[in-house]
Queue: 4 jobs
Job 1
Amino acid sequence: MISFEKIKDLINNSKNIGLTYHVSPDGDAIGSLLALKCALEKLNKNVEVFSKDNLQKNISLKFLPKIGEINGTNYVVNKEIDLLIIVDCGNLERVSCEFDLNKVDTLCVDHHISNDLYCKYNFIDSFSSSTGEIVYNLIKYLGLEIDKNIATCIYTSIMTDTGGLRFECSTQKTFNVVGELVSTGIDFWNIYEKLFLSQTYEKIKLLGLVFEKLKIVDEKICVIKVTNDMFEKSGATDEQTHDIASLGLTIENVEASIFIRNFKDKIKVSLRSKNNINVCEIAQKFGGGGHIKAAAFVTELKMDEIEEILLKEFRNVLS
């Protein structure tokens, strides 16, 4: 595993640096990338974001600095890039850009325990609450000031992946980092409100359809589905579904939540759990990964097919 000292050398020896994340990026991926972009520009680096995802349409995170510059058209690394940094992405198939591993040096910065170590250089810390927490420590190691823009991005990263500091991945060091971010003078309450307490009309309509179809199996497993028809009826977008998987765990006695939705031409599955259920192990069986209590994968199976298979998996675990 690469060290911060080696990462510092890589950055110092690179003039043109590319940044990217996983497809369909969440707040941790986006916040980590934008924080790094702001920091690296302080070092007078030429920083370019490569992304298949159009972040100009990201409603909930539109307050983040520089997010409006990423429109999803620049995603092929076919120019002179000294170092491509990939944040919050556990495997090569999910990277939100196209590049040749043999033609560009790559560095992965991530906190997923299931990371495939697919880059030339990898810094993986599964004990960190989020990739944003790692990026915070890296920026500090580089000797750079955590200004309000960087703090806003990292606060968003940490809040997203800890559920507002509710999840078990939140440690004392996580709270210490958040305290230092707040000390920069960021409008933390306003950010929190936008992340957790504010929903679009379309999202509320989608939730209505979700609750109508939601079902409980064996009293301990919640199954949630979002179809293309539900997207069309509500007007909601995929980026507005990131927190739906966890809704099942708010139901009394439920220990596992299965969230299945249409994603482009495939099916995306998000898994959440309580207690000692390791959903990462289940997701890895389908080429995915993540954390012990939060994982995901993409499949070409039909919704009903993957639901039946997953119910068998969870029943085996729960028995």
Note: The chain has a mean pLDDT of 95.
Job 2
Amino acid sequence: MKKAVYALAALAVVAGGVGWVLSAPTTMSDAEASALQEGDATRGELVFWAGGCASCHAAKGAKGEDLLKLGGGLRLETPFGVFVAPNISSDKTDGIGAWSLVDFANAMTHGTSPDGENYYPAFPFTSYARMNGGDLGDLHAYLQTLPAVSGKAPPHELGFPFNIRRGLGLWKRMFLDPSPVIAAPVAGVETDLALWERGRYLVEGPGHCGECHTSRDFAGGLQLARWLGGAPAPTGDGKIPDITPVEGGFGSWSAADIAYYLESGFTPEYDSVGGEMVHVQENMARLPSSDREAIAAYLKAIPVVAPESN
């Protein structure tokens, strides 16, 4: 009997050790980190709007220049608890003003903080992981030009086991994948491949559209087989719509309709954008028209997602 107890104890120790190793926060390789270069703040402004940084990190209801004051504090109420957007202003104490480019890139692409902790995926690093080094350098440069805002945001409000950050390392091993979600345009749809690939980069990467428009499993990971096929609203009641080219729905919009909607906020039926999509549309309106056209091209040439059975 004692031998069995000792064996079980030994197995528990081994399992705990393996779990500890597998849950460790990850960072860029030395080669990846050394390849990063400080970017251009002018280019970084476009990345900033494509990434929707102000939508979460500026004060609720902020307009104009206040959108550039990234003191955080927005509360995101989810089934896992309340996440509070942090201060990402250029303040060196309370924000990210003291972060190096490597610190920033590790946060964006690995969900790992400068002090080696896992970030929660309410911060959409699973999408930002698809961003290229040039855009990361440009965005970092731009953020350093924005106003410093003092004061740290309140902590997240999470119960057990979601308050154990170390466990997120295992979550990231399951769901953090920088490869494209959609490998190529669907067969039979004529499209400019270079334009489509630019749209894929914007939608799947900095635009992080899948974070809201794709349903999640019980662990909170995106169900990539249902990419952009609609999902329950992550922070409240209602449903985020299917934006695949489904017949009778979003698929009835032309590429020009989609691009115009992102520019103006008006649908082909002359309805106006509403809800949380208002912020997204206002951000997209700041991008070059070629980027909105690229997003439209991508959305017109991805697989349709079948309705979920009840």
Note: The mean pLDDT is 90.
Job 3
Amino acid sequence: MRRIIKFSRCFVFTSVLSLVLIAAGIAGYFVKGGFNVGIDFQAGLIQEVQLAPRAFSLSYEGLGNALLSLNGVSLSVAVSGVGIQGFTNQYLLADYGTIGAFAQALDQIEGVSVSTEVSGSTPFALLALDTQSTPALGSEPYWVHYLPLGAAPVPTEELSRALSGFGNPAVQALGDPGERRFMIRIQEDAISGDFQTTDIGRALDEYFGEGETVVVSSNYVGSRFSKTLADQAVWLLSATLLLILLYASIRFKPQYAVGAVLAIIHDGLIMVAFIAWSRMEFNTTTIAAILTILGYSINDTIVIFDRIRETRHNFPGDDFELILNRSITETLGRTFITTVTTMLAVLSLYIFTTGSMKDFALALLVGLISGVYSTIFIASGFVLFWDRHVPRGRAKKETEVISALET
């Protein structure tokens, strides 16, 4: 017969430990001045920028109008005319390997003049257009930027330092660090009446050098939309807890449902404590990580509760504490193997990814450990507490009523 581990002996200690961790998390929230809120929950101006130097400039002096469009390393030039001499010519140029070869191909288009800023033998990986300048070609030069191969990554702290004149800007790295793409949010209260969207690009040019940055996109998010997004996140978490409570109540007894909900609330609070103290950015990715852990935790809890119900049916004469310890012991191998397997996959994400995906993986690692802990010691501990105290309290009430009637 398998040796039964007496988990119930640790229930009081683990309950105290959890309360201490949760209290520390609440304290961390106030000590650290709240969460490190990401750009998803802040009202203001959002701009996506890329640190990419100038490659070449284009100008057009032919008939009709010339319009640029870009897709990766493919540049398209559409030349069109109106009226009696209406016409449309489309020129598509793909990756030529070097900027010189690319500029030479552009120079073959009638009316288009090319002036290179760098050596013609310079290789490039990506082209970039500044959306703050119209892509329509004219007599004024229009600059096309590029990302050199092997470009050194730039830390987000550098951009925060460059934009320090705009209050406390939020900067988030996007994609691979070598692409040097960033999402910048300037908070609404830092935008004065004479603020213009081009001010961010000018500040970056002053810090990194003229022509070294390009604005990929620019959007303004109002405070109402930001608040709506935060409210939706709260409602989503609340609805998740309610649905889990209903499901567990239908499948098991109410005390099991309450224990399951307490366990996932515990997991959520532990993750919140970790996010508060680690200063991990709190954004929609973090919300996704919390919801993922809630689902994983309830799955593990349901497995143990199923085994408790089965063991109670097979050993109706045993004490409930023994039944609880036997059930957890019998499912411990399955819990351990499942958790470790999942953690290996998440650990790979944490090691081989960057940015928000790395934070997502780190939050999952913390949540997986907390999920196993809460299933064994919080959910099961509450069920045992209920079994020991609630029926006894009800029996005591019944005894008191009977005694009152007899007197």
Note: Residues 355-406 form the longest helix (52 residues).
Job 4
Amino acid sequence: MGKIKVGALCWNQHTEWAGLLAAGIRADRLGYDTLWCWDHLYPIVGEPRGPIFEGWLTNAAWAQATSQVRIGLMVGANTFRNPAHVAKMAATLDHISGGRAILGLGGAWFEEEHHDFGIEFGSGFPERLRWLGEALPIIRGMLDGTEPTAAGPRYASLHTRNEPAPVQAHLPILVGGGGEKVTLKLVAKYADMNNIGGGLEAVRRKEAILLEHCAAVGRDPSEIERTTGAGVVFIRDDRAEAERLFRAAFEHNRIAKPWENQPVGTPEDVAAMLAPYVALGYRHLIAGFPADYDEESMTRFVSEVKPMLEKLA
């Protein structure tokens, strides 16, 4: 049997704090490998008006309340914060968690929250990716203790120290996104983990492009842990009941049209939908759990679906 990792992406929108905290504790107790939330200031699924909890503080609270699961953002918005400050925050989270932090980063995409909160959004995605490309070597250097100096158009640092160092000798950076020209090149150059979505065919295509970027920069692709979003998971022995719960969750989140082709159904249905990703080499599968973080689905994904996929791997 091959090793499969499973993650829980607990939506931090349209929820109460007690439920979100409990979902993280549950993921830890059930044996999830990773635990994630979004780094957004408005809800990103459905109507953007409504409650959402801040991601870094959610991670810090989860870190304090758990003992085994690794914790990160899926993914941090590079535009929101100075990269040297982000490295300091990541090191602090690593100490709070006892060495379980993962630093997720991406170029950011949600213009409305930037506009309303007064955060610079840049001229477009190419510029935001240039900013991310400047930020990553500063962050990597600080996490590794090399005291980086940089003087780019967007970010500057001067022999920047990061004390105390992270607990982990090498705190992993996950770069999220599948942009074929720039994002995947940044993954090849800097990332310890990736995260690609968009369905099986998109992941298959982007995986091939990632391998090309790795070859171009001289990176061993086996050094990059492949992750993908598994979709929104609802599991019941009765498929109709799983579908009903799935639709109710989307209504709760004020989503007019539920997503299609989601891993909703019996454990066997969910495993069959995810098996092609495992065959492609994406063996860290991150399941989405909207509020109220259905306990049966969270439990059966790790206790029943994961072993099925491990047999295939």
Note: The chain has a mean pLDDT of 96.
